[in-house]
Amino acid sequence: MNKIILPALCALLLASCGNDTDKIGRASTVFHMLGKNDRIEVEGFDDPDVQGVACYISYAKKGGLKETVNLEEDASDASVSCVQTADVIRYNEQAVVKPREVFKRSASLAFKSQQIIRYYDPKRKAFAYLIYSDKIVQGSPKNSLSAVSCFGGAKADAQQIAGAEGKQIYGACVVDAPVPTK
After folding, report:
1. Cα distance between residue 18 and residue 53, in whole Å
2. Measured between alpha carbons, how far is 48 from 175 in angstroms, rounded to an integer?
3. For residues 127 and 60, what is the distance between their CA atoms, to the nearest angstrom?
4. 14 found inside a domain
5. Residue 6: helix, strand or coil by DSSP?
6. Where are the alpha helices (DSSP H) in the chain?
7. Across the chain, what does the average pLDDT equal?
8. Contacts of 124 by beta carbon, 8 Å cutoff, 6+ apart
9. Full-model pTM
10. What mean pLDDT do residues 146-165 have?
């Protein structure tokens, strides 16, 4: 009995470790008579440290009977696109200077995951978002990259940056505590 309960609890815990994402849509790719079809799923989420930036991901999801019993392993194919979603992008430069995992999802029962790592380029005032998958033993070289720049949108005006005293303005970005560039 314990041999069944422990794996079931582990699977339930992994499934409950969700992200703060919004399901945007899906496209069916392979029909299965039993269980869900194979598909591409699309989700969106806001960067937790960078106000005014959202990312959209698409990834392959296996269906069929294996998905029904949570034994499927999804393909490593995934894509990310990040965009400015507000008039002004706001962030604390010290909080974003180190790479950070901003998204993670399980792609198999316990051995494979997909994640998005955010990198910050202080010289160019830009963010790069990298999605890739890994396994306990070996990952995949398949990856996708998206970048958002402070200078990619309209320049922030005085009304949009109210309360920005003591902050640096770069294009569309209002930045707390700038990191010295080399």
Report:
1. 20
2. 15
3. 25
4. no
5. helix
6. 2-16, 64-68, 93-96
7. 78
8. 149
9. 0.75
10. 76
**Does the residue 16 lie in any domain?**
no
List, in order, residues 6 or more apart from 143 with CB less than 8 Å away.
Answer: 130, 131, 132
Q: What are phi and psi of 3, to 5 degrees?
A: -65, -25
Assigned domain for 71 exists: yes
Cα–Cα distance for residue pair 130/62, rounded to 1 Å: 22
Residue 181, in any domain of the structure: no
Instruction: Label the pairing between strands 126-135 and 38-46.
Output: unpaired
Residue 69 to residues 12, 31, 33, 41, 59, Cα–Cα distance (Å): 11, 18, 15, 19, 20
What phi, psi does 94 have (nearest 5°)?
-70, -30
User: pLDDT for 77-111, tens place per residue?
Assistant: 889 999 999 989 999 999 999 999 999 887 665 56
Q: Per DSSP, what are the bridge partners of residue 59?
A: 41, 78
pLDDT tens by residue, 8-65 = 333 333 333 445 888 999 887 777 677 677 888 899 999 999 999 999 999 887 766 5
